[in-house]
Amino acid sequence: MKKALLLLFVSIVAVGAMAQGLKEGQFLVGLYTSDDYSKFGVGFGMEAELEAGTRVPASCWAGMDNLTVDGVRFALAESAKIKSVKLYAMKAGNTIVGPLATKTVNKNCSVGWNTVMLDKPVTVAGDYQYLIPMYVFDCTMESYVIATSFAPKEGTRSLVLYGPLRTDTTEPVWGNLNGDKYGSAAVQLICTSAAISGSTVVADGYESRTVLQGGKFDATIGVSCTSDEPVESVDYSVMLGGKTVSGTATFATPLDAGYNIKGAFTCSLTAPEKAGAYPVEVKFTKVNGKALKEEGKATYRQNVVLREAKRMSLVEEFTGTACGWCSRGWVGMEKVKKELADKACVVALHQYDETDPMYGDYYHRPSFIGGAPKAVVDRSVRSTDPYYGDKVEGKDEGIIKTVERYADLLPEVEISELSATWADADRMKIDATAATEFLTDLPGSQLVFVLTADGLTGGGRLWQQTNFYGSVDAKENGVTQENDPELYKLCRGQELGQTYVTLVYNDVMIGSSWASPEADNGVAAFTATGVGEKAVSIYTLELPAKAVLLNAIKKDEVYVTAMVIKADGTIANAGRCKVMDTENLTPAPSPKGRGDQSAYDLFGRKVKADVSGIKIVNGKKVISDKNFF
What we know:
Number of helices: 4
Shape: globular
Number of strands: 42
């Protein structure tokens, strides 16, 4: 299977609960039961008939008697002709059963949620460990049909495919891309149950920041209840690092009786005395003081760090000169650059349209990259507005507050030193060097270098930014000079209020250590990623060959951003430095004609020649690898 992800920019309108197509007595069962899904589709660059779906574990229907499946609900990232909908089951030993039902569709289904009811209900047997609802479509080289969701917590994500996924067999094969960080397929079951017998409670998420070893912290634990009476309290225990905390969580407002009712509570925990990644076992034993027939268990992960360290968040902006609303992102990223200079690194990806003079195809594209205007923060916030930021309680909090929530977290790895120097006389190549120390266990991590440039601009229409704000009065877009002074300048009648406006672009990605968009990594994974492990990584970057971009680059405004990417695809830490000429740090010759045997650190400060770390000695970069730290 060609596992390169293809990307799609699709505007999607959220579907409300009334549009879920449920009748009296029906309810949704799945890894999640909301209308959330990613706005960007997943594709696989192949010509084949595929079945796409998700694997729903039995814990999602625990406590429901005589459960039947009446239909399947799925979201699409682009309209497509759906051939049919199928329902499979899985028993112990990964034994596939079915299809239990097949419903012919053969019609174009729209972007967003679609509902297909089966010809007759399917009874769920007691030995089914999973139900697997799937939809069938013709995949092409340009298909981006599969909508996913990142709403389910780690460990429950599931994107299942069935079809000619391998070239070494002519038989269709099953593939679950759970480990590939694509999210879960946005597919849910429409079910009916004869009755609810008693109550069940299962964990529905564990949320905690990275914490210091030995410190106290609060964790938020989500619950999913199925009960024949309102749920006022649950008894729980949480085990972390060999210690167990037990208690009773009482809900201020009782949870309604019914299926898959969601709630949450806060639990106070103490971190283990040693840094590392620890399993967290959450268990429920009672509901409303009554013992459960089966204890609901779930395991999560808690990172505990060795010590505090400096952290910088990575903000990736998706933009382009042909994108009319991306002028808003330009304003937002300038705010981040100005107000969070010591907390965040910005990488502006001009990949909206190839006519953009700053377009570059030398950057890795995971599934959530694409669309504009858009910002991604530490690859944890996978889609936010680059100016308005996230919505909190229905209101835009602003991009600064959204970034600060992540920039203030404890980092799991420290980038202790970062430098970049021109490597050739023509100043076309850059040697980037980073020293890192792991503050917790991060197996599978990798370090990537990205080249950016400030001050890019040019003459003529090619370099002008399309600006929809310049076509209408500010009030028509809800923009006021008092609340949005920077954005106000782009509106019609103001100083930058033209439909096509000449701007100066900063933080523009002009190269990276990724060789291509499909490359899994541009720098080899760290050889050791345990607590206290240290490494020095070196990579040579090159300026782009495209003349229109190269000619606009100012050699004294080129920067390197380093990012440590964890195995789950999120960012552990980032850093940014300016590309320097090593001769600028060269000490003057001594009076006796010998080179000064003292040295200079990466910030130009004089240090002893035998000091450990990265330093400049007689104009050359030296790394003391034997006693580096």
